[in-house]
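Students often ask why we bother encoding 3D structure as a string. The short answer is that it lets us treat folding as translation between two languages. Here is a chain of 213 residues written in the first language.
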Amino acid sequence: KTGDKKSTQELEMLKDLFEFISSGQSARNYDLNDDLKSLVSDLHLLTIKPVLYVCNVDEKNAASGNEYTERFIQTVEKENGFYLIISAAIESEISEFDSYEERQIFLEDIGLNASGLNKLIKSSYSLLNLITFFTAGKQEVRAWTIRKETKAPASAGVIHTDFERGFIKAEVISYNDFENLGSEQICKEKGKMRLGGKEYVVSDGDIMHFKFN
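And here it is in the second language, the structure alphabet:
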């Protein structure tokens, strides 16, 4: 009504999005430019949220799915959805085993490389742009969840706000290096421990020791 050019453009974009949704399509399939993303974020649209579909099949179809999952996947791919195929029956059996080794042997015997629960967790983290870093000490080892591209000070703040306020640096060992070499001391000796400053972006699986004032 005021004739403001920016508001007029925003209104037209939202009208177009409204028509798109009214046609029965999900907002996540709409080609959102940067301007529209900021507008739409305030609307909290249900169909713009990421979706992960979990298809439950019987044990014999756990590895490759069946005719029903094939038809379903074709539909999901059209709407930019994510999917997993798992067998609740197998997951129930796995829960009865006491050790990780027993579970892996069972999975390998039926042609699977990971449990459905592990796949669900990894897929959910990926969908939500989440990663994990670790802290380790004499008393406990902890895993902490952060968003991808989070810098070291903000990651320290997940543990305690004082860590972020007084952040100095972080000693970092990658998970793969630690697994390959076997200990923190050997990682230090081999030059695999590095220092991360305030601009260091935490990677998935980083093992971190924070220095703070």
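Translate back mentally: DSSP finds ten helices and seven strands in the chain. Keep this in mind for the problem set.
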